[in-house]
Amino acid sequence: MERTTELRLSGSGGQGLILAGIILAEAAILDGKNALQTQSYGPEARGGASKAEVIISQGEIDYPKVTVPDVVLAMTQEASDKYCGSVAPNGLLLLDTTYVYDLPQSKARVCALPISGIARDEVGKELVANVVALGALVRLTGVVTLDSLTKALLRRIPKGTEAINKKALALGWELGMANQACIIA
101, 119, 142, 176: least surrounded by Cβ within 10 Å? Predict the structure, then answer.
């Protein structure tokens, strides 16, 4: 059976989750997989609800919507409240404890990490929290290779920001590695 992974990246506008979804889908394509990415956000440019959904498969993707996500990333409490109940029972909830204070009960694996705090404190720019999250998410799931993720990232970020984005990705990867209990089998 061909493995398909459905992912929902959620938070608020301005956190870069749409870009993160695009980068993740592009990384999957670089790995020779099929990928589909959709997005939605509130009418506000910053601060409104935002989500990107990505479907990655070795085979054909029959339906263009995420129905029961295998992975939910929630970067805000609102996103956690809205989407964490939809994750598959054996899936992964990746929560940013910088902004998610009330951790949900779930049959999924819950991995609560200070994603935005690490971006702010260790990179010096919270703006790259989406890249820290991608590093952790990919390390925890193995849904794409680090090599493809790095290539896709470097293709999509503004010139001149390569160093801080590479640092953010490495920190996310290390964060994921340090939380082995969250790994999807």
Answer: 101
**What are 74-94's pLDDT values in tens digits?**
999 999 999 999 999 989 999
**Strand partners of residue 83:** none
Residue 98 carries which DSSP code?
T
The answer to whether 42 touches 50, Cβ cutoff 8 Å, is: yes
Provide the residue range defining the domain that includes 85.
4-180
Q: Phi/psi of residue 46, each to 5°?
A: -130, 140
Q: Which residues contact 127 (CB under 8 A, 6 or more apart)?
A: 16, 119
pLDDT at residue number 105: 83
pLDDT one-digit tens code per residue, 24-69 = 999 999 999 999 999 886 655 566 678 999 999 999 999 889 999 9
Count structural domains, the chain: 1
In a domain, residue 185? The reply is no
CATH number of the domain within which 175 lies:
3.40.920.10
Ordered DSSP codes for the chain: ---EEEEEEEEETTS-HHHHHHHHHHHHHHTT-EEEEEEEE-SSSSSSEEEEEEEEESS----SS-SS-SEEEE-SHHHHHHHGGGS-TTSEEEEETTT--SPPP-SSEEEEE-HHHHIIIIIS-GGGHHHHHHHHHHHHH-SS-HHHHHHHHHHHSPTT-HHHHHHHHHHHHHHHHTTGGG---
